[in-house]
Amino acid sequence: MRPHHDRRTRADVPALPEFIQVFKPVQPGAFIRPAGENIAAGQTVLHAGQPLRAAEVGILAAMGETTVSVLRRPRVAILSSGDELVPPGQPLAAGQIYDANSLLLAGLVQEHGGVPLSFPIARDTVDDIRALFRQALAQQPDMILSSAGVSVGAADFTRTVLDELGEVGFWRINLRPGKPLAFGQLGGVPFFGLPGNPVSAAVTFDVLVRPALLKLAGRPDDAVYDTAIIAERLRSDGRRSYIRVTLHHDNGRLIAHTTGTQSSAALLSMVTADALMIIPEDITEVEAGTRLRVKWLRTPSRA
């Protein structure tokens, strides 16, 4: 390559002034960043378990760091079973429904720091479910979630296979929605058998799976609780109940209204809900105007 020559003549270069005028005094140290302004010597910049957001990545770069030790995101196998289930996008035959739970749970796993591993839908046979569980274990997940197959129906074979390949810690809980829930281990991997109804799957994930997943990810439980006044009379069956509600502020009070039907199949109620209102166990009647605890499902509004 030929060297680049500046073709400007000396006449083209502006002459430097012989004098400059200063119109305001310059203080010593002005326009200079003092050492230690950003980070003091010996200061802890990031703590173990702290999520790496954009600002954290930026401060690491500002310190000249190129690598940092992190916890691997938990890998979560998501399994669905049922002759009635069809993947979205395929035609439905009589008596069939789309498999919403797999995508619902995959989204929840991602939201809380995990990596979802998806698998084909298993048919309602012991052999199919056994093969699906073995396929999941071959991927070496950190957690296994199954959807449906944990109730008491004639084709609910998950319990049978779980007893073969692992063990059950508990079966059924005093929760509404979500009574048919199993927990145990499958080949040494924590296993949650969630109900098949989508709202039940979403609520039990939030109450039980989410804290376990955050623990695996090394992340703090950032759940936000509040108290709100229910605007209508509620009934419960005596189980601890999680009621989907919308919330709004009225003269400094947080007011809750139910989203309508509390059917465990009404997934739209989870879309419109701001929070879950918690009715404690052994309470069957809640009068309008009662103040109860709520768990926010979205960013709290302080308006």
Write a structural description:
The chain is an alpha/beta fold. It has 2 domains: 75-217, 3-Layer(aba) Sandwich (Molybdenum Cofactor Biosythetic Enzyme, Chain A), CATH 3.40.980; 225-296, Beta-clip (Beta Barrel). The chain contains 6 helices and 16 strands. The chain has helices spanning 54-62, 100-111, 126-138, 158-165, 198-217, 268-272; strands at 75-80, 85-86, 97-98, 115-118, 143-147, 166-171, 175-176, 182-186, 189-194, 225-230, 234-235, 240-250, 253-258, 275-279, 285-286, 291-296. A 6-stranded mixed sheet has the order 4-1-5-9-8-6, sandwiched between helices. A hairpin with a 2-residue loop joins strand 12 (240-250) and strand 13. Helix 2 runs parallel beside helix 5 (198-217) and helix 3 packs across helix 4. The longest helix is centred in the last third of the chain and has 20 residues, at 198-217. 28% of the residues are buried.
From the 3D structure, determine the CATH topology of the largest domain: Molybdenum Cofactor Biosythetic Enzyme, Chain A
Provide the gyration radius in Å. Answer: 29 Å
Total domain modules: 2
Q: Count the strands?
A: 16
